[in-house]
Amino acid sequence: MAGPMRAAALGSRRILALASMLLFTSSLASAQSAPDTDNGRYTLSQVADGYLRLDTRTGALSTCTNKGGWTCRIVPDERAALDTEIGRLQAENRQLKEQLAQRASAKAGPEKKAAQDNAGKSIELQLPPEHARVMALFDRMWQRLVELAGMVQKKLSEKI
Question: What pTM did the predictor assign?
């Protein structure tokens, strides 16, 4: 009887060892299944090549792939390019407004300038007729820029 009991004990030990080994390897596999989310800072969305990681603090996007360990590469930020373009357009708008103001003051006669100097507080600029066209042009440019930003945002949200 000692022989069968001993064989049963050895068999149960083997089963226990095998079960613990399977449990350990499955925990290792699950630990390597996705990149670290750093306590909720990152939101992960599965894509074909791996994961798309959104940094909830900065808004930066990264693509994470598992090639011998997790590697995340930052996705080029189109928002920075749009901000640069907006800044350029605002500077150009400011410059054009200054040019228009200079033209208006150059066209005004010396009597009008003297009257304005005497009036002191209220200065009226008479803008040339091109002003309306320039403002319409800037309005169309701004609307197009807003549309492009909306399209980029929509495409990014679809990818997430």
Answer: 0.30
